[in-house]
Design goal:
alpha/beta; 8 helices; two-stranded antiparallel sheet; seven-stranded parallel β-sheet
């Protein structure tokens, strides 16, 4: 299989390793291409995203690594843009991933992927205990942001399920929830027909989840619409660069997909998995 990962993080944001350590490990593991995707600077204080004053340094570091490893590994200079990002010219990057990690409720911002307690507290205080109502705001925010910036990739589309292994928080089989998710994912498909939906194994590595993002019903919905997908591990360390890929590929096949798009020769290209 063509081994690639477009969603990786380094110590420039909330990752553990340097960009060069990630590149060296990718070469050792037999990767053909590697994309770096630092968390964009945020418009509120946080401890997970790069700051605006370091963004040019980050960009130049990845450009240097491109040259150094040009005979061993294709390296791409990407970015994960958050809906709450600072203003910056993100078009200079090789590709852009879009994501929503927070919910805005009145004057408070809630993280949806920090701790399960934070998410449960948000649902209780702001949505009257209704996970369906929370899901509607999340998917609506995601669709609006993605359709506005029109990125190359939409990340972990059902991120609100990160802490929902074995449906600990809410029932993902609930028809109302599934209809909400499909409604807004359909909007993304209609307005961004060439976008790649990410199959992301990050929560498998960090939380021990048994299934990558997104859930089976979303994957099958995307397959039925003829949507395109990419595969990543949302890696924050050298030991997770290809974590869960084999299992994810089997799930992808079961959903009806025959190819995955990977960074190859300067762009995302389809690679057969049959």
């Amino acid at each position: 299989m063509f081994l690639s990962n477009c969603h990786t993080h380094t110590f420039y944001c909330d990752g553990k390793n340097s960009p060069e350590q990630m590149a060296e490990s990718a070469v050792e593991q037999g990767f053909q291409s590697l994309g770096f995707s630092v968390h964009s600077p945020m418009n509120f204080k946080n401890d997970f995203a790069i700051t605006l004053d370091r963004l040019d340094e980050y960009f130049n570091t990845i450009e240097r690594l491109k040259e150094k490893y040009k005979n061993q590994l294709e390296i791409y200079n990407g970015i994960e843009i958050d809906a709450d990002c600072e203003d910056y010219d993100y078009s200079k990057f090789d590709y852009r991933i879009a994501a929503v990690h927070q919910l805005h409720c009145c004057e408070r911002i809630y993280s949806i992927d920090d701790t399960p307690e934070d998410l449960a507290d948000c649902v209780k205080k702001e949505f009257g205990g209704s996970f369906a109502a929370m899901a509607k705001q999340y998917y609506s925010s995601l669709a609006s942001f993605v359709c506005s910036v029109k990125p190359d990739v939409v990340a972990h589309v059902d991120l609100i399920t990160k802490f929902n292994e074995k449906y600990k928080l809410f029932d993902e089989g609930n028809i109302e929830y599934q209809m909400i998710a499909k409604l807004y994912i359909e909007r993304i498909c209609l307005e961004c027909p060439d976008i790649l939906f990410e199959v992301n194994t990050g929560a498998m590595f960090r939380c021990g989840n048994q299934h990558p993002y997104p859930a089976d019903f979303i994957l099958k919905f995307l397959s039925g619409r003829g949507a395109k997908i990419t595969l990543s591990s949302d890696s924050h360390s050298i030991d997770s660069l290809q974590f869960g890929f084999n299992k994810a590929i089997e799930i992808i096949k079961e959903a009806g997909f025959h190819e995955i798009y990977f960074l190859d020769g300067g762009q995302f290209k389809p690679h057969s998995i049959m």
